[in-house]
Structure formats: C-alpha cells, structure tokens
Amino acid sequence: MSRRLEFPENLYDVLGVDPAASADEIRRAGRRRQREAHPDLGGSADEFTRVRLALEVLSHPRHRAEHDAWLASARGIATPVRPDGVRLRQQQRAPRTARPPRSPAQPAARRSTAGAETPAFDRIPKPVVDARRMGWYRRAWARPADVWPGARPVAPAVSARELATALPFALVLVALVVLLAVPVTPIATPWWPIGAVVLVIAGAWIALRGRGLRAQLATTLLWLGTAIAALSAAVGFFEAMARVLAGDTEPPWVHIVRAIGALAVAALGLLAWWGLRPRNRRMRLERMLQRLADESAPPADSEEQRFGEPGGTALTRSAPGVNPVRRRFAEQLVGEALEQLARIPGARIVHGVRLPGGDPGVATISHAVLAGRRLVLVDAELRAPGEYAVDARGALTRDGAPLPQTVEFPHRVERMHEHFGDAAEVRGWLVLVADDAGGFAASNARTWARVRLGTVESAVREAGDWLADDGQRVDRLLLRDLLDLRVEP
User: Fold this and answer.
1) Distances (CA, A) of 475 to 293, 347, 368, 376
2) Which of 49, 80, 93, 251 sits in a 20 to 30 Å window from 165, CA-based?
3) What is the pTM of this model?
4) Which residue segments constitute the domains of the chain, with CATH numbers given?
C-alpha cells in the first residue's frame, strides 16, 4: 500500500481473539461476531462495519502484519512471530500453474456420470424464459446501485448526541467572539483576535474529527485551543483580582465575565470532542474499508455486471468424471437466462466458480449471482425428461426412482456458506435442463437445507425474487471475494 494504515483500535479485541490466533480461529471468531452484530439479527450497522473491518484486516497476511506493527509501536503490545505468514505471502505472489487443458473429444469424457449420451446442441429443447413478466423485473429500479464501500466515506446523519454537545460549543464560542469584537458591548476588548484564533482552531479540529481525518493533528488542535482558552480565563481572573486588590475604580466583573466565557469554551470544547467520538470512529472505519476495497476490489464507479461467459470453463475446467460437452450445453442455456438478472442494479453475475481451498483450475459451480449481501449459486445439469425430486435421504430421484449418482452441489453450497460466514446469505439452485423433448418438471416438496431444485424459468423467478430484496446495493468486498474464486477458461 502507498501509505501505512492507521488503525482505530486493537482489532483482535473486536473479534475477541488472542494476537496469537491462527487464521482458522480468526475466521471462526469473525463469523460468530458478524452473526452477533448483523443488523438483521438485532445488531447495529456501526458494529457490523467494525467487525467487517477487523475480519478484513486480520484475515489478510500483509494487513495483519501492518496491524501488528501498529500495535507494537502505538500500544506497546507485542505479537508473536508467524513464520507461516511469509510463506503465505510468497504463495500469494507466486503464479499459479494452469492445469493443461483436457480435450472434450476424449472417449472417457463422452459419457456423463449419469451415463447419458451427449446430444447435439441443436436437438436440445431451448427453454424460453421471459423475465419481463416476473415481479422482480417489473420493480422500479434506480440506477446506479448504491456501492459500499463507495468512492468516499458517507457521513452518518447528525445524532442527538452531536447536537447536544457540538452545537452549544459552537454557539457559545461564536457569541463570545462577537461580544469581544464589537466595541459597544460591555466586555469588548482589543484582544478579541485571540478569540478569533480559537474559533478558527475549533473549526479545524471539528472538521477533522467529524470526517475521521488526521487524528493526531485534530488532537493537537483541540489541546491548543483548550490551552489558549484556559490561559485567557486565568489571565482574566488574575486581572480581576489585581484590580480589586489595587482598589481600581473599574469594576472587576468585566474581566470575570471574560474569564467565565473562556472557561465555558474550554469545557464545552472537550464535551464536543467527546460527542463527536462515535462519528469519528465510524468515519475512520469507513475510510479504512474504502482504502482496502480500492486496493483489491473492482472500482466503485464500475457498472460491469457480468464476469466470464456462460459455459466458458466447461470444456477445459470441469471436474473429473463430468461430461464437459453436456456441462457446456447446460451452462450456456442456464447462464444466458440468468443474465436477465442484470436488470437488478446491484446484481453481479460470475460464470465459472471454484470452491474455496479447491483446485484453482476446476470450476465446480456453474454460475454465481451476488446482489448486496445475498449470493445465489447455480449448478446447471443436462438431464433426461422426467419429474425430478429429492427423497427423504437427500438423493435426487427421477420419476420416483433414486438416481445412482451422488449430488455434490448441496455440499458445495455449504462450503461456500462456511467461507462467506454471515457476511453473506447463501442459497443454491440445482437447475435441470431437459436434453430431449418430453415432460419435464422439478418438485420442491422436499429440498436440501440451502438448495432448491428448479427448471431454468423457476430458478430465474425464485432467485430474482430473493435477490431483489437487496438488489439496490453492491458490496465491493464481497464481490472481490467472489471474483477471487472465479476460474479463468
């Protein structure tokens, strides 16, 4: 990074872990804390942002090393040396060796795990999906989507705490400077520019404090302004006492009023500093998340909604035992229908996704669609006509008879759920496409925990309805994590 990060607090304390915690312990703690802080589960947006930042920093080796260095220098907290961190960073920099392409014409790949021959693409019935008739499509969408973290931090609304602390400080300070500067007022003085200097200093630190910028400079300005006000109060009280002791005819109350005003400014300034603390912390967190997103995520002003081509990874990046030609046909038909979800402003469609920790050259999930913090995973399969369902054991059946192949997709969806934790809601659709003419249906009388069966039309309708409830937002950090799992053709 071009500039060293300044952290608002000990992020290990945010997650409730020891500085010696392993990467797995940090991920588990992050999932637990995200669940506790999630706004939809009784938490607050501020706390959820705080937890997201902690997890974002501590799960990245280089950012964690910066945080540990900051802890040692700023807080005097020593962290243990992690020799595996260097190796991990070296692995991240090392180029991945691409798996040699596998020809789709090999005899072993001409048959799917279901044993069905590969039909010609022209003979496969093409599902017709008109999303314009679906409820999610007809919503009045506003473009562009709301992006988080955005190009710049968004300031929260003014709170009652800020009004009760910063506003009295500003009013008293401005009123005092005016009374000192206007000659006709009883407490006017030629030294009024000192009050004007305090006013300028106060305006500077309030702006810095409220925007979460230059914490050290803001603190210096606060204490400088407070010191000037306190010194002015001391001088005022001293002059009043001196005049009383000297028997001066000029009433001492003028100096006393000036001194009391200066003391009030000093006290109210400290109160305003305290009142702006939540805003300052929120802005610093948002600014740091923005910098992290700018470093590794798509640009905030990017409106690109599609990544990859439907079926682009099937021929060379399919898992062993999968007929790549049948998979490509299915992914092309399903992927093209799913791209109608781009009607949702926050939808980002990714074709060809691998499992976390899996082979970087194998696309085990056909499609993924992210909208806000909702993630849809879709696996496309070409199947013979019939009525498909899930039995009590979780096996896929056709016309009531269990199929011999084990369905792996629900387990893959669970893996993705564990990977994203409570930062994203994850659901899956196993979309079946008929490879020949004839009756074709998918029943959801029984379903897996996070996965539903579907035809192309039902999957587009159901997934669109679910994504639409968070379809106005783009979470750049989640999108980055999803794109990290994308497999290149």
Assistant:
1) 10, 10, 15, 14
2) 49
3) 0.77
4) 11-93 (1.10.287.110), 123-143+303-483 (no CATH), 160-287 (no CATH)
